[in-house]
Amino acid sequence: MKIKLTSVSIDDYDKALKFYTEVMGFVKKHDIPLGPGARWITVVSPEEPDGTELLLEPNASYPAMKALKESLFKDGIPFTAFQVSDIQSEYERMQKLGVEFTMEPTNMGMTTAAVFNDTCGNLIQIYQITGV
Questions:
Q1: Backbone dihedral region of 47: left (phi > 0), alpha (psi from -120 to 50 degrees) or beta?
Q2: Closest CA relative to residue 107, chosen from 131, 89, 84, 90
Q3: Which residues, 6 or more positions from 65, have their beta carbon under 8 angstroms from its beta carbon?
Q4: Domain residues of the chain, as ranges?
Q5: What is the mean pLDDT of the segment spanning 122-131?
Q6: Which member of 72, 117, 129, 131 lies 3.0 to 4.6 Å from 77 by CB, making a disulfide possible if both were Cys?
Q7: pLDDT at residue 60 is higher than 70
Q8: CATH 3.10.180.10 corresponds to the domain 5-129
């Protein structure tokens, strides 16, 4: 069994695609029209183009997902997390691009983590493994 697809809930396809490619640095893998106003958009890490895909999943038609996102955001809980090799440089790079961080890089023992707003209603965590 493998994890090949995961998703992040979004509120706007184009805004999310722009953020996850131009700011996060992922690359678009698929952008397939699915009917009026619907698309299947996935992005991948440029370091693993055949690796796990991140589906940009709209939440407008899922009231429960919208409520979950709002609760997680209000409570400061990240929706998902991405591993980075150098958290300080990613933090600085993303800050220069205008990303709003709710937690700057913080040592958590075995990892260092930072949390930011993805502009799509989610808090996202980046982390670097710092100890074994």
A1: alpha
A2: 131
A3: 9, 59
A4: 5-129
A5: 94
A6: 72
A7: no
A8: yes
